[in-house]
Specification:
Blueprint lengths: L6 E7 L5 E8 L5 E5 L4 E8 L5 E3 L7 H6 L6 E3 L5 E3 L2 E4 L2 E4 L11 E3 L12 E4 L4 E8 L10 E9 L4 E10 L3 E2 L3 E3 L16 E4 L1 E7 L5 E7 L11 E2 H4 L5 H6 L3 E6 L7 E7 L5 E7 L3 E5 L22 E5 L14 E2 L5 E11 L1
Antiparallel strand pairs: 1-2, 2-3, 3-4, 4-5, 6-16, 7-10, 8-9, 11-12, 12-13, 13-14, 14-27, 15-26, 17-20, 17-22, 18-19, 18-21, 21-24, 22-23, 23-27, 24-25
């Protein structure tokens, strides 16, 4: 199969009249990714099963209005800081910063995924780089959502002929600022969004996880996974691993935790492997980041998704490579501060196959 140039189609219009586009990437094996410059979302990813049947393996919505009405981060590129910050507060160089508290797990308010209007809700500038890649760019001004410094971000989606969807976030700043951009797709490798993804088999190349409090904020304790339901160092069916009386799982209504990669290098290396036993689809996740958030879709609220199918709890799972959540408030965590002259470069590879 020959590769077609990237196609650009209209995806609708924002209330201020700006046009939104969808970009369609294909490869020689027939895989197809659809991404939009609204929130730099991945809106669909079509992958063959073991019989060669293509299906979309992501949760989402059929229209732009769906993403605007239900900003649940499905397929989104989130920032400046993905995941949670305790009380929406941090201090940097002796100055206190106050962010929006737009999430309240356990009834405890915190800052989540960049705030009230994070990167997932802005219109990015778009540029087609090649037959395989599209680049989105955004200038986040000093003070946006309470963060310091002007931040310039590029987000590149690439679909190569090795059946890899690559998400790369690159950023520079003119003042010290926290950054932790996250790719937040909900995956269901069966291609049937009405089914649970808890029957998938998961491997996490991680030997520890971050303990959290009742508000899902890290306590600062790094806990060994060995001998606990958090141990996915060997493959396990997700549902078979859950122990409802295990305290960390009770706090989040299931899995919603940050695991720490056993390989501490900053190079691209395996973080996770997800398989659907029914269709044989496999997704491997590789990253250059220190951690990965495995979220079991516990808080999906039943709102209608693609084809009107309700998005109910555990219909999809997220595997978000990242820096540690609440890192600005934990000096013992790897630094999340980007300084002038440095470049933030978050590389995340989704490698698809079937067996």
């Amino acid at each position: 199969m020959s590769v077609s140039p990237i196609l650009e189609e209209s995806f609708g219009t924002l209330p201020d009249g700006r046009e939104v586009s969808v970009f369609i990437l294909t490869n020689k094996q027939g895989l197809r990714a659809r991404v939009t410059n609204y929130g730099a979302h991945l809106i669909s990813m079509e992958v063959p099963d073991k019989l060669g049947h293509l299906a979309d393996i992501t949760l989402g919505y059929d229209t732009l209005a769906g993403w605007q009405k239900n900003p649940g981060y499905l397929g989104a590129s989130v920032g400046r800081f993905g995941n949670r910050i305790k009380d929406g507060k941090f201090s940097l160089h002796g100055k206190d910063y106050v962010l929006a508290t737009n999430n309240a797990p356990g009834g405890i308010p915190c800052h989540l995924h960049g705030g009230v209007k994070g990167f997932d809700q802005v219109l990015w500038d778009a540029k087609i780089l090649s037959d395989h890649a599209v680049e989105f760019s955004y200038h986040s001004p000093d003070g946006e959502e309470g963060y310091p410094g002007n931040l310039d971000v590029k987000l590149i989606y690439t679909l190569n002929d090795q059946n890899e969807l690559i998400w790369q976030a690159i950023a520079t700043t003119d003042a010290d600022t926290p950054i932790n951009m996250v790719h937040h797709t909900y995956w269901n490798l069966s291609g049937d969004a009405a089914t649970t993804a808890s029957d998938h088999v998961l491997t996490l190349h991680c030997d520890r996880f971050l303990a959290t409090d009742a508000g899902l904020i890290p306590t600062g304790e790094l806990v060994a996974v060995a001998g606990t339901p958090m141990d996915f160092t060997t493959p396990h069916v997700i549902a078979d691993r859950v122990e409802e009386n295990y305290e960390p799982l009770k706090l989040g209504g299931g899995y919603d935790h940050c695991w720490i990669l056993a390989d501490k290098s900053a190079q691209l290396r395996p973080a996770a492997r997800l398989k659907d036993p029914k269709t044989g689809r496999v997704m491997e996740v590789l990253t250059n980041q220190p951690a990965i958030q495995f979220y079991g879709g516990n808080f999906l609220d039943g709102s209608p998704g693609k084809n009107g199918i309700p998005l109910t709890p555990r219909n999809g799972v997220c595997l978000e490579t990242e820096r540690f959540p609440d890192a600005p408030n934990h000096p013992n965590f790897p630094s999340c501060i980007l300084t002038p002259g440095e470049t933030y470069d978050h590389l995340m590879v989704h490698r698809f196959s079937a067996e």
